[in-house]
Amino acid sequence: MEHSICAVVGYRYGIESECTLEIEYNQKSFRVRLIPSTPLQDTIEGTLLSKLDTAQGAAEEDEDEVLEEIADVVCEAGLPQFARLAPPISQRLLPTDLHSLLNPETFDFKLVTVDGRAQLDQQYTQGQETDLSPLATATSLLPSFALKEIQVLERLQGKHITKVLVDGQERCCKISSRLTQAAVQREFNCLTQILAANVESLIRVPKLVGLVYATIDDGNSQVVGIIEEYIHSPVCTSTLRRIDKQNATQLQKVKWADQVRQTVADLHRIEIVWGDGKADNVLLDVNEDVWLIDFGGGWTPGWVDELLAGTIEGDLQAVEKIDCFLGVEKH
Questions:
Q1: Residues 255 and 240 in one domain
Q2: Phi, psi values for residue 119, rounded to 5°
Q3: Cβ–Cβ under 8 Å, residues 274 and 265
Q4: Which structural domain range is residue 95 located in?
Q5: Which of 78, 99, 128 is at the close of a domain?
Q6: Is residue 44 part of a domain?
Q7: Which whole-number Å values give the CA distances from 283 to 145, 184, 206, 289, in the listed order?
């Protein structure tokens, strides 16, 4: 979620409790707390928390609307301090290693009401922030790499999915955090199952090639991420969703549809469900062949019915939707 140049990357809240926003600004992290007042309506933060309490019992869009309002208030009030503590940097500049990206300098604030206006009160507990969550990996023969050994080349999706350099090879790295743990765990389980079936070279899915470890809470090294093959694709058509359907030939479309259908069938043969099947999760490589990605689970309206999420039937529905998207008859 973008607010000016503030990126709100997470919320933590509950009913009748405080709310914490996690914000990225110029590669530094800001945590802003809204603490309940008595009575709630006497302060800006109290009024916002009261609205959030009410919205949590209503429709999801109502809750999102209140969170958006909270983010707007926080970012407007905090922008001068964010700019002072995190001066502008080159947009092309990235931390040299994954540890630096995942552990930005962090500043803590509290939203307060002063003379009827929202202000941020710095708590002076700045430090390093980490939200890594360990994965259940049992015993693995895959090579493992420390966060500091992994060079970041590009952020693909936030801080937790990146293009990296490992042992001189370009790879895709997915990190497990509070928000991503379930998805990364499922992806690890699926890709491990493909390796165990000894069919990784036959199925058009990025191969699992390594693990990422870090020292977290208890001082022990634990696996916190996975490293996969990086599929090189043309920038303008990185996924099936982004192809120019008018200029793509029918022969190409049939080929892509056949490859998707065959890959899904191959996965089902070894009892793996793709999950969130859709054109956005089909990569096209430089040879114009498709690769299925994102085994984190979930579903997307318009591609898979909610009741079919995580099932073979849901995958088959996604395949049919992809056929329709490409303008290819069922076969």
A1: yes
A2: -135, 160
A3: no
A4: 2-128
A5: 128
A6: yes
A7: 26, 18, 10, 8
**Backbone dihedral region for residue 281 (phi beyond 0: left; psi -120 to 50: alpha; all else: beta):** alpha
- Give the chain's domain count: 3
Work out the burial of residue 262: count CB atoms within 10 Å of its CB; fewer than 13 is exposed, 13-18 middle, 19 or more buried.
Answer: middle
The Cα–Cα gap between 284 and 243 comes to 9
**pTM for the predicted model, two decimal places:** 0.77
What is the C-alpha to C-alpha distance for residues 12 and 63, in angstroms, rounded to an integer? 13
Taking CB atoms within 8 Å and a gap of at least 24, the contacts of 59-68 are 67/11, 68/1
What is the residue whose two structure tokens read 């937790």? Answer: 160
User: How big is the chain, counted in residues?
Assistant: 331
pLDDT tens-place string over residues 112-155:
999 999 999 998 765 555 678 999 987 678 999 999 999 999 98
Please name every residue paired with 33 in a beta bridge, in sequence order, or none if there are none: 20, 110
The torsion defined by the Cα of 252, 258, 260 and 261, in degrees rounded to 10, comes to 160
